[in-house]
Amino acid sequence: MYSLLSGLYDYLTQKPSYKILICGLDNSGKTTLLEQVKKMHGQKYMDFKKITSTIGLNICKLEKSNGEFTLWDVGGQVVLRKLWEKYFNEAHGLIFVIDGADEMRLPEVKETLHHVFTTQPSHDLESVNTTTAFDQLPVLFLLNKQDSKAFKGVDFVTERTNLGHLLTSAQRRNSESMVMAVSAIDTQGIEGALAWIMAAVSESSK
Ligand SMILES: Nc1nc2c(ncn2[C@@H]2O[C@H](COP(=O)(O)OP(=O)(O)OP(=O)(O)O)[C@@H](O)[C@H]2O)c(=O)[nH]1
Ligand SMILES: [Mg+2]
């Protein structure tokens, strides 16, 4: 009887769990951001100076009143980008990190965004449905390195990467998108960014 009641209690009090994928070009600051989030939440984190380019997957779990959120940080090197697809189907939301201080790589950001948001996942090529894996997910575009003197600003980056067009595209009108500036190093904007993606993810899963 006790185990039945405790099972029922667990079921009723169970929080929904959500997965949020963090992707973007190599060197944009995804892992630094993830480790900073851990630090801000009193979790064990890696010394930022010791972070090297990601090959596998880094994870951070956050318990919030509206659910349990798992952040997945994947590698952004060219050869690893095709692996992002593996996580698309399971993700409830996406954070796409852009180095806002690296003007030289903005054309590559533009090309990658175009690929991610307008190309079908390879296993879906036969499908007649022309939406991409991300069209239905809330997406937060984070312009990182706001602390840097070379930071270009939201308007400049949005224009150079064609982000504005992407945000208003027909496919994305059904799901939430946002652009925010942050600094993974000095924490500027991170709290607001997390609050936005968590609220968007839990709302869109209702
Ligand atoms: N100034 C500044 N530098 C940053 C910031 N965030 C990350 N960096 C630096 O950017 C470099 C790359 O950071 P990573 O976190 O390894 O980048 P990543 O996106 O995880 O790279 P991959 O794992 O290769 O995809 C490091 O030298 C970081 O210290 C930031 O907010 N401001
Ligand atoms: Mg990394």
UniProtKB/TrEMBL annotation:
GTP-binding: present as a keyword of the record? yes
Q: Which GO terms describe its molecular function?
A: GTP binding; GTPase activity; metal ion binding
* Binding-site residues, GTP: G24, L25, D26, N27, S28, G29, K30, T31, G76, N144, K145, Q146, D147
One Pfam family it belongs to: Arf
Any one GO CC term of this protein is: Golgi apparatus
* GO biological process terms, semicolon-separated: Golgi to plasma membrane protein transport; intracellular protein transport; protein localization to Golgi apparatus
- Can the keyword Membrane be found in this entry's annotation? no
* PROSITE patterns found in the cross-reference section: ARF (PS51417)
- Please provide the record's keywords in A-Z order: GTP-binding, Magnesium, Metal-binding, Nucleotide-binding
Which residues of this UniProt protein bind Mg(2+)?
Answer: T31, T54
**Entry-linked NCBIfam families:** small_GTP
Protein name stated in the entry: Uncharacterized protein
Provide the taxonomic classification. Eukaryota, Sar, Alveolata, Ciliophora, Intramacronucleata
